[in-house]
Each structure stands twice: as structure tokens, then as C-alpha cells.
Amino acid sequence: MAQGPPAWFGRLRQGLEKMRREFGGRLKDALAAGARLDAALLEDLEALLVQADAGIPATTDLLGELARRARESGARSAEAARAVMEEIIAERLAALAGELSEAARPPTVYLLVGVNGTGKTTSLAKLARRFRAQGRSVLLAAADTFRAAAAEQLVVWGERLGVPVIRQAPGADPAAVAFDAVRAALARGIDVVLVDTAGRLHTRSNLMDELAKLRRVVARELPGAPHEVLLVLDATTGLNAVQQARLFQQSVGVTGIILTKLDGTAKGGVLLAVAREVPGVPVKLIGVGEGPDDLQPFDPAAFARALFD
Ligand SMILES: Nc1nc2c(ncn2[C@@H]2O[C@H](COP(=O)(O)OP(=O)(O)OP(=O)(O)O)[C@@H](O)[C@H]2O)c(=O)[nH]1
Ligand SMILES: [Mg+2]
Fold first, then answer.
1. What is the residue with the minimal CA distance to atom 5 of ligand 1?
2. What residues contact residue 160 under an 8 Å CB cut-off, 6+ apart?
3. Within 6 Å (CB) of ligand 1, which residues are found?
4. 12, 122, 194, best to mutate for ligand 1 pocket (most atoms within 8 Å of CB)
């Protein structure tokens, strides 16, 4: 029996539909058979990349590389340019991909941070579901004590997924909640602790200090923790995400990025901008829909393929 592409690839392709239409499709049109790789074509490609929020530096890099490789190989046709373009995009994205780190000995602690509404809590729930499916025990920490509804939202997730939730009264110190959660995880032999935090403006230094404190408290209680500080970025905000990444990186220290809401946006080029302008912070997971299975490990080759095919 012939094997088709795996189901997750289908979901990725479907999730990237808008990006495929508005970037991949136009790219294909621009690079249609017969077109010549000349200055006018490079200009069209530049416009496409900028519209996709790849940012000027990444765009310049990409097109410079395209022109260089075309020169070297003597390829002048648009078909050749398309293949080279896919190759360069996959390469640039590959430099950005990374897998989730884990503690040598449980519990592994993941901290989710980011500005308001980027998808922290839903990503946390999707991760919890994934770990449960792998047979691992999970504990959720409601360190978003800013809104009373936030802890409630987590409790609902906890009930749905059958995992315990550590919470305190609204207004409590988020670091105290994280501390309790790590203690509880150690006492109960839990495998994975997922810490939800309140959305915050990256420009508010007191809120950023609060996160830095939470991080320190967790590290003191469990050396090596948190094993990941995952910055959740909303792809629909385009290049704003780059600025958020820089500031969270400076004030809290970020070990990985979760890029959500890639479905329904044509601004996926922001991945290239992040790769170029926030080096050393890999993208670990991408969100391509609201369904429970729509949070996927970031696979750059599959991403480039889903964009072009
Ligand atoms: N389409 C789509 N929607 C998503 C994705 N990830 C999250 N969302 C939606 O984004 C909205 C906000 O998600 P939350 O998880 O509450 O965001 P948050 O970062 O926890 O928000 P605050 O706690 O208020 O800062 C919800 O409606 C989610 O369903 C995604 O990958 N694709
Ligand atoms: Mg939330």
C-alpha cells in the first residue's frame, strides 16, 4: 500500500493555507516557467518577502544569496530560482529550529511567557495533552494571578485533561505559585510542570522583573529549572514579534519560541526575521490552528515544503 504524507503534514499544510496562497502562490506565479531571473524579478520577490513580514535584513540576505547561487551555477531560469529559493528558506529556518530540552531527572519545568493574548494558556494545555498522551504525569501552575479568570481557565483545562493544578488566591505572588508547584511536583514525583504566566507588555519593566524573579525562585528550588523559558509569539502581529523577542530575551532570558496563529496569517515571513534578528533563540513549536493537535514541533524542511508544494 502506498504511504501518503503523514497526517500532521496535512494539518501543517492546511494551517499554512493563507501563507501558501498569499506568499507561496504569488512566489510561484513570479517564478513561472519562462520568467528570467533578472532585476525586475528580484524586485518582485523583495516585495513578496517584505509583505510576508520577513523584514528588510532577512529579505536582503535571502535575495543576495539567491543571486549569488544563481550566478555560481549559471542558472538563469525562474524554475531554478524557485528550487534555490526553497532551499535557502529551508536552510535559514533550519538554523532556527530546536527541540524542547528536558531535565536529566524529572520534573522538567517549562515556563510560558509572552504579551497578552498570544496563546500562552492554550499552548500550555496543548502541551499538557501531548505529554499525557506520552504517558507522562503533568502538573499545571496557575502563576497568572493577575486575572481571577486565568486560574479558572487553567482549572477547567486541568479537569478536562485529568491533571492537577496548583493555584493561589487572585493577586498572589506568581513566584510563590511556581514555588508551590515545583515543591508539589518533587513531592508527588511529577514528570512535567507547566507554568502559565500573565500576559504582559514587554515594555513594562516592573512586570518583566516579576518574571525574572519567578525564574530565580524556581531555579533556587530546583537547580537547572526552568528547563525552558518559552516565549509565546503571535504570528499575526508580524514584525512586532521580533521586538517582543528581543526585550523578553534581554530581561528574562528566553530559551525557545512558540510561534502561534500561523494559520490565518500571511505574515509567516516573521520566522525569517526572528531567525536573523534574534539569533540563539530557537523556534521549538508552532501553532497552526485552534485544535488540540495543532501545536507542532517546528520542522523547517516540512515548513518550507508545505509553503511551496
Ligand atoms: N487560530 C489560532 N488561534 C490560536 C492559536 N493559539 C492560540 N489561539 C487562540 O488565541 C486566543 C488567546 O489564547 P490564550 O491561550 O488565552 O492566550 P494567552 O496568551 O494565555 O492570553 P492572556 O493570558 O490573556 O495573556 C484563544 O482564542 C486561542 O484559541 C493558534 O495557533 N491558532
Ligand atoms: Mg493566559
1. 261
2. 125
3. 114, 116-122, 144, 150, 199, 232, 260-261, 263-264, 287-290, 294
4. 122
Cα distance between residue 226 and residue 142, in whole Å: 15
Residue 287: strand pairing partners:
295
CA 112 to ligand 2 centroid distance, Å: 9
- pTM (2 d.p.): 0.94
Give pLDDT tens digits for 176-192.
999 999 999 999 999 99
Please give the distance, rounded to the nearest whole angstrom, from the Cα atom of residue 149 to the centre of ligand 2: 9
pLDDT, tens digit, for every residue of 86-120?
A: 889 999 999 889 999 999 999 999 999 999 999 99
- Grid cell, residue 118, equals 498570544
Between the two ends of the chain, the Cα-to-Cα distance in Å is 23
